[in-house]
Amino acid sequence: MSPTKDRLNELKQVQNDDEVEITIKSTESKANDIDQTLQKAEIIRRNIETIKNNTEKASFILKNNVLKVSKNQQDELDSLIRTNTSTAHKINSILKEFEHELNKIKNKNTAEFRIKRVQYTTLKKLFQEVLKESSVTLEYHRNHRKELLKKSLQTAQKDITDEELECLLDQNQLDVFTDNHLMTTEQVRQQLSDIEARHKELLEVERQLNEVLDLFLKIATLVEQQQESVDRVEYHAETATDFIEHGTKDLEKGLQKKQKYSRRRIYIILISIIIILIIVLILIIV
């Protein structure tokens, strides 16, 4: 073999090797992206499980201590609720990153996009569910604290009605009792101290509940918007697939017709040649 041909074969082999290497790197990159997605999803799942477990613990403490929550139990409740709130914000942040990654994928019909989309939508729904459970527990906690506060107020001011209490609580005007009451006895002072403490507890629970509800509403809106987006993507993907399938079928039909027409032309030409030969032979014989 000549040196020129040898060099040409070497160049072809190098080109083929480069193409194989690029394909392998591209495949490895996609596999790494999917692995990172699954790892991120696992982190979110663990955090969601943390919120769920903490909510169950808080619910257990509240439902088994209806009349009075001890200081240690209240500290534990506060710790559980704070952990849930910070964890929820962390999950929300990771889900936003997830959504950003999904939006960056141009080809919505790839395995990578489908895997990420399934993980994203599933995790958001799970997150929405635990937030709902957490808000229900916090609402129970809020109502419980409210009832305790009402009882303390009624003890200090027996002639106040439930409606007036609700109005004062809603308008945060409990200083009507704590500032103006004649603190004539130690018992009254203790009652007013209890009122102030329970009011502070109630305000803190209200704040925590509003924070969780705000997150819950944001995630609920995102879930709804994402579902609409997914439906649109699936519709366009199905439409494109149908278009390609119909186009392929039409192309196949066109090729079949072309081949059929070509064969027909050949047959006509052959028959024409045979007829001409027969006529020539007849003329020669005559």
Automatic annotation (TrEMBL):
<dbReference type="InterPro" id="IPR000727">
    <property type="entry name" value="T_SNARE_dom"/>
</dbReference>
<dbReference type="GO" id="GO:0012505">
    <property type="term" value="C:endomembrane system"/>
</dbReference>
<dbReference type="Pfam" id="PF05739">
    <property type="entry name" value="SNARE"/>
</dbReference>
<protein>
    <recommendedName>
        <fullName>t-SNARE coiled-coil homology domain-containing protein</fullName>
    </recommendedName>
</protein>
<feature type="transmembrane region" description="Helical">
    <location>
        <begin position="266"/>
        <end position="285"/>
    </location>
</feature>
<keyword id="KW-0532">Neurotransmitter transport</keyword>
<dbReference type="GO" id="GO:0006887">
    <property type="term" value="P:exocytosis"/>
</dbReference>
<keyword id="KW-0175">Coiled coil</keyword>
<keyword id="KW-1133">Transmembrane helix</keyword>
<dbReference type="GO" id="GO:0031201">
    <property type="term" value="C:SNARE complex"/>
</dbReference>
<dbReference type="GO" id="GO:0000149">
    <property type="term" value="F:SNARE binding"/>
</dbReference>
<keyword id="KW-0812">Transmembrane</keyword>
<keyword id="KW-0472">Membrane</keyword>
<dbReference type="GO" id="GO:0006886">
    <property type="term" value="P:intracellular protein transport"/>
</dbReference>
<feature type="coiled-coil region">
    <location>
        <begin position="146"/>
        <end position="205"/>
    </location>
</feature>
<dbReference type="GO" id="GO:0005484">
    <property type="term" value="F:SNAP receptor activity"/>
</dbReference>
<dbReference type="InterPro" id="IPR006011">
    <property type="entry name" value="Syntaxin_N"/>
</dbReference>
<comment type="similarity">
    <text>Belongs to the syntaxin family.</text>
</comment>
<dbReference type="GO" id="GO:0006836">
    <property type="term" value="P:neurotransmitter transport"/>
</dbReference>
<dbReference type="InterPro" id="IPR045242">
    <property type="entry name" value="Syntaxin"/>
</dbReference>
<dbReference type="GO" id="GO:0006906">
    <property type="term" value="P:vesicle fusion"/>
</dbReference>
<keyword id="KW-0813">Transport</keyword>
<dbReference type="InterPro" id="IPR010989">
    <property type="entry name" value="SNARE"/>
</dbReference>
<dbReference type="Pfam" id="PF00804">
    <property type="entry name" value="Syntaxin"/>
</dbReference>
<dbReference type="GO" id="GO:0005886">
    <property type="term" value="C:plasma membrane"/>
</dbReference>
<dbReference type="GO" id="GO:0048278">
    <property type="term" value="P:vesicle docking"/>
</dbReference>
<feature type="domain" description="T-SNARE coiled-coil homology">
    <location>
        <begin position="192"/>
        <end position="254"/>
    </location>
</feature>
